[in-house]
Amino acid sequence: MGLAKELRSHWARHLAVIAGYMLIRTLFHPFTDGHMSLYAGLRLGALLLLPYRYWPAVVACDIFCLAQTTIECAGQLGTHWAMWNMLPGSITAQPIAWWCRERMGLFPNKRQVNFMALFVAIAGVSATWTLFNCITMLSATDPTQPLKLSATLVAAAFTGQYMGMLATIPWALMARVEWESKLPVRQRWQRISHHVFAADTLIMLAGTAIFLFLLSRNNHNDVRHIALRVVFVPMVWLLVKQDWRAVAVSGTPCILFLGALLDSIPNPTVAQAEGFIALCLTGLFALGTRITSQQQQKEHERRQAKRAILLAQQSMQLNETRMRKTAQALELAGSVLHLSHHQLLTRFRNMLPANEAMRYDRQATATQSQVSGLADSMHPSAWRQRGLPAALHETIARVLAEAGVAYRCDIKGATLSDLSPSMHTAIYRQACESVTYVNMQMVCSSVRVRLRVGITRQVHWAMLCVDGTVEPTHINDAVYDIGEREFLASKLGAYGLNLDAMRNHAYLFNGLIHERMTHKGMRISCLFVDEPMRHVQRPIVPTPANPWIA
């Protein structure tokens, strides 16, 4: 009932599967001969990739293809042969295909393939079909053509189907991976062309085709043996440069070229050659799988590092937002405290001596000034009210003026509004840290901050340079004291980071820091690259590292 309901509901899809199956089988017909069957790869590939509800359509196609041969030869080879010959290979392969898909995890996810399960499926199905083919041949009753089974015939039948599967199924796997990919269509085609139509791939395949064509004109056995070994050179070359897809791209043409060199009638030479080819292809696929697994592991580590950087940027921006709100609350509290103190002094002014009232008023004013300074060190009011240029021009200038250090700030290039808020935070905090650092390293008489903003290939960047200059004739005695320099850092809201810590801070924005001594002092240059904050997705638990999964 379930199958009948499925056929009634989605009969058009089943017809499309049948039409596609027959079309691909027709395309494979010119390349299938006595010692290599691409049909085997088509049948097993359909069972491994198609949903289970389409398996009856694959069986129907197999029965239809076998019916013509069976009807033509049943009278000559007998009824028993006809019965065994009408048994579709897709039915005998279904248990193995189901086991590899469900129990061995052929597809751990939508973008990976378990090649161990794939090799088990290919080898198991090849052995099963070889067994049934031998039974079918033994059941023939043609007295004019007595058939004797031999190890050579059995080996040729097994390796022929094995190679046919290796030549076709990897292409279906690549198509499935690209179909399940969430990348845009343009990026998919670019990735496909990178593997299939890359310049080195075409050159190596064209050279191999010409070489094998010239060798095919020579019937000497030694020359053919050389061709069998030389044909794997382009596969190894492409494998080293890419991954297992390179083996599929180069392996299928090489198998077809070698099929033209080998005899169609099984003999020990053909069996040995096919066995050698099958063993080499299996080893190359295994090596390619290992390379792909390592590449995926590196890509996962790169994404984890990128995610950690994004989280660090987000944490820094949230911390800055929290400091901004705290600074606003402090300023409000300072204003309320000053107003309350002023009202209290106004009420009790007649009861206090004049000098004591003035002293209390000065204390209230000093307290409000301290609270405002603390709020400015956390997040400057000029930054909140007029933006980052005001903070660079006014806040740092006021703090350095109190320490007796001359200050100058120049901003050039694109507008700062094009940069993200996290970049504004990084620029200001790096400027404060750099100003603190140069004043900790030497007694500066003047500091100059230069900020240049630009855009290259639609990527915004900012270059910050802090120059500390020493003029012996203008050294302020106050900055000689180490406590004053530490006090300078607290006023700027800096942590007093060293150069390595500042490099780590800049690395969050793909930045670089360079320190250079000039003839008058020190220069610290920092480059920031603005990357807009993206939503950090919930981390996906990675599958354990497995060299067979790629």
Automatic annotation (TrEMBL):
Subcellular location field: Cell membrane
Source organism of the structure: Dyella caseinilytica
Membrane topology reported for the UniProt record: Multi-pass membrane protein
Membrane-traversing stretches: 113-132, 152-175, 196-217
Main location: membrane
Limits of the MASE1 domain: 41-286
The entry's keywords: Cell membrane, Membrane, Transmembrane, Transmembrane helix
Lineage, broadest ranks: Bacteria, Pseudomonadati, Pseudomonadota, Gammaproteobacteria, Lysobacterales
Domain of life the protein comes from: Bacteria
Coiled-coil residues: none
Name the UniProt record assigns to this protein: MASE1 domain-containing protein
